[in-house]
Amino acid sequence: MKTSTKILSILAVVAALPNIFLFKYLMNAFVPTGKSFEIHFSPLAWVSLAFGIVALILGGIVFFRFLKTQKLTNALFFSVVPLTLVYGVFVTYVTSVKEMDGVTAESMRATLKISSAENSYNSLLWVGLATLVYLISLFVIILIMCKPLSKVEKVTKNLGDGRMKFDDFKVGGTKQFKEIENSLNKINYQYKQKENKIRQANLAEQKNLSKQFFRFFGKENIASLESGSQIKKTATVLLFDLEREQKNAKTLSLEENFNYINSYLKVVYPLIKRYNGFVDKYLGDGVLAVFSEPQDAIECAHALVRAIDVKNKSQKELHALACKIAIDTREVVFGVVGEEEKKEPQIISDIMSTLEKMQEINSYIGSKVLFSKQALGSLAQNFQFDYRFTGVLTIDTDDQMPIYESLETLPKRKKEKLKKLKNKFESGVRAYNQKNYKQAKEEFEFVLHYVPEDQPSYVYFNKTLEKLKESA
Q1: Global confidence as pTM
Q2: Which residue in 195, 196, 220, 221 sits closest to 207, CA to CA?
Q3: How far apart are CA 393 and CA 399, in angstroms?
Q4: Tens digit of pLDDT for each residue in 65-105?
Q5: Is 447 exposed, middle or buried (CB count within 10 Å of its CB: 0-12, 13-18, 19+)?
Q6: Cβ–Cβ under 8 Å, residues 64 and 125
Q7: Which of 75, 199, 203, 462 is most buried, by CB atoms within 10 Å?
């Protein structure tokens, strides 16, 4: 209990003590006449009234402070019980005063106008009025006591939506709400601390952007970039996606699954940076990266596939994650967006839809790295690697884009076999595109005879069988 509350409690008791002896003079001031009451205040009655008012005021303050130290349920109980007792006493007296004897009872009946048969229903009216006052008082008490709940609701909603406040939240109310207020302010403080850490991390990340990022703009550092800066430039864009190869060997929660996928993505960023690229955006379980040189993108793709294979072998108890990569080269609008605290590079182009279609083909035929003819044609002449023509991607009704599969990520023995069978496979693809399904079937059948585990050949072979059945 606070010192001020203790002092007020003592003063209230001190003010109430004289009324033990003087209260009878105050009561004698109201003289019943049988028809009403006459008021005759003596000096001692006035003194009793003054001490009584002081005691009530001080007692009310102490009682209010007492309520603020209680939990909401206790505060409501101690607020409602006295009011209910007063209401109950009044209703009992009004309904019983008709049967009471004595001049005081007669005076009360006359004052309340319930003394005769003509106004016998007035007692019910007094009870109704008392009930109305009681309910209104009850509503006001509950409204005042529970008012902090609406503030708590608003605060928690703002915190839930990530809308933080830089000043402390004020809830008010009883001690229980004070504890809630302190907890909410702690949460708000922690949110602000995390936001500051994230902002600092973002700034640090921008400082660590690859030199390639600044070369796109001809700038030297992040401070020299302005939001809204943009430039048209030919770039090679790599879309990296992760997908499950098999069911979990161990059941993962949502949080564990997120952390598991994130552990793979942590392998991706350093490799993209090593091959002179930078991440345009993270896509949940994938990454969109940009390279100024197509050969850097191709080499990065090969490194990414190998790194994911190594990662899978190090975590045998969990499900393996396969990666698929699509690469395209074209002119894109490249710019910087965002506020001063967080400037970000963004690609504004339809290249994303093309890459997504290439990823669908990756999933369908079981390949890992596909790249476009534009990317192939932009490679340096001295850049050598093994690949094969895989088909034609229809972008729209008038535009078709040849795509190729890299063989560099395959096991060595399988790669050497497919290199020798490259012409057969490509001949089968061209025959299939020209609707010469009989020749296509023979070519893919030949490839599968030597490399039965070649998934693209297997898919094409089955498609040719379906086409031949349809035409039969």
Answers
A1: 0.55
A2: 221
A3: 9
A4: 777 777 778 788 888 888 899 989 888 888 887 778 778 78
A5: buried
A6: no
A7: 75
